[in-house]
Amino acid sequence: MYVxxxxxxxxxxxxxxxxxxxxxxxxxxxxxLGNPNKFTGRYQINLLVxxxxxxxxxxxxxxxKELKGGxxxxxxxxxxxxxxxWAAIDLETWAGEPKES
Length: 101
Fold this sequence. Notes:
This protein has helices spanning 22-31, 39-42, 57-69, 72-82; strands at residues 2-7, 14-19, 47-53, 99-100. By secondary structure, it is α+β, with helices and mostly antiparallel strands. The chain has a single domain (2-100), classed as GIY-YIG endonuclease, CATH 3.40.1440. Strands 2-1-3-4 form a four-stranded mixed beta sheet, sandwiched between helices. A hairpin with a 6-residue loop joins strand 1 (2-7) and strand 2 (14-19). The longest helix is centred in the middle third of the chain and has 13 residues, at 57-69. The chain is globular, with a radius of gyration of 13 Å. It starts with a strand and ends with a strand.
């Protein structure tokens, strides 16, 4: 299971989600770009900047809630430690490891 954070090109908006298939979920977000009925589509949020693995769905959901309840500043620190430049992560070429909690 994955907990992930996306942002938009201006880095103004963050989205936190949970999934069992990160590649599929990112494709779904990309498909919704420009869709005013979807939060990620409305704000052009499709750049993966952070993700971590969890061992169970319950742990992933709990971590998602924890992150969503935290301040923007705490989220920015977490992203900066994992991905200092906030570069969009391409899962096919990325050489790093997901954060494990």
